[in-house]
Structures are given as structure tokens and as C-alpha cells.
Amino acid sequence: MIVEHFKHQDPVPVYRRYRDQGRLAPDGLDYVSSWVDEKLERCFQLMQTTDRALLDEWMARWYDLVDFEVYPVLSSNEAAEKVAPRL
Questions:
Q1: What band does 13 get if pLDDT is binned at 50, 70 and 90?
Q2: Structurally, what CATH architecture does the domain formed by 2-86 represent?
Q3: The model's pTM
Q4: Are 71 and 1 in contact, with CB atoms under 8 Å apart?
Q5: Amino acid 56: pLDDT
Q6: 45-81 pLDDT, tens per residue?
Q7: How many Å is the Cα radius of gyration of the chain?
Q8: CA 66, CA 6: separation in Å to the nearest integer?
Q9: Hey, how many other C-beta atoms are within 10 angstroms of the C-beta on 6?
Q10: Angle 14-19-24 (CA atoms, 0-180°, nearest 5)?
């Protein structure tokens, strides 16, 4: 899970680049879904990859417009499987 903080709380440069150049994700990094807060200051984006370097490569293409927080996450089913032996 990626939390993107639009620099200067300004989504316009981000959406302009996306419109003109696309997501700019390298092969092997897959977009799953995203949500934007109502103030248009942050985007919560779910990306999927087995290679963290691809995520870093993608974020480098956006660092001038976005500050990132990265949270590795599991699906609810994966979390339940991980916890099951302790129940």
C-alpha cells in the first residue's frame, strides 16, 4: 500500500503527468486500485510486485511531485492464514 502525499497539496501536476505519460510503472509492477482523499491531497494506491526495486524505480519517476509512504500489506485471507496457527 502506497500513501502518496501530493507536494504542496497540489494534485494538478500529478494528474497532468499521468494524463500525458501514464502511470510510468516498470514491467513487473502492477497497479491494483487507488483512492484519493476528498481534499485531493493524498492518494492511497495499491500496487503489487515481488521486487521492491521496481517499486523504488516507479517512485523515483514521481518524487518531484509526490512524497511516498510504503506499507507492505497482506490480504485479509493471507493474514488469517498467518494467524491461524496461533488461534
A1: very high
A2: 2-Layer Sandwich (3.30)
A3: 0.87
A4: yes
A5: 98
A6: 999 999 999 999 999 999 999 999 999 999 999 999 9
A7: 15
A8: 5
A9: 21
A10: 75
Strand order from edge to edge, sheet including 2-6: 30-36, 42-48, 2-6, 66-70
Collapsing DSSP to helix, strand or coil, 82 comes out as helix
Residue 11: C-alpha distances to residues 8, 58, 87 (Å): 9, 18, 44
Domain ranges, ordered by start, for the chain: 2-86
CA-CA distance, 9 to 63, in Å (whole number)?
A: 14
Q: Which residues of 47-83 are buried (b: 16+ CB within 10 A; e: fewer)?
A: beeeeeebbeebbeebeebbebeeeeeeeeeeeeeee
Contact 64, 54 (CB under 8 A): no
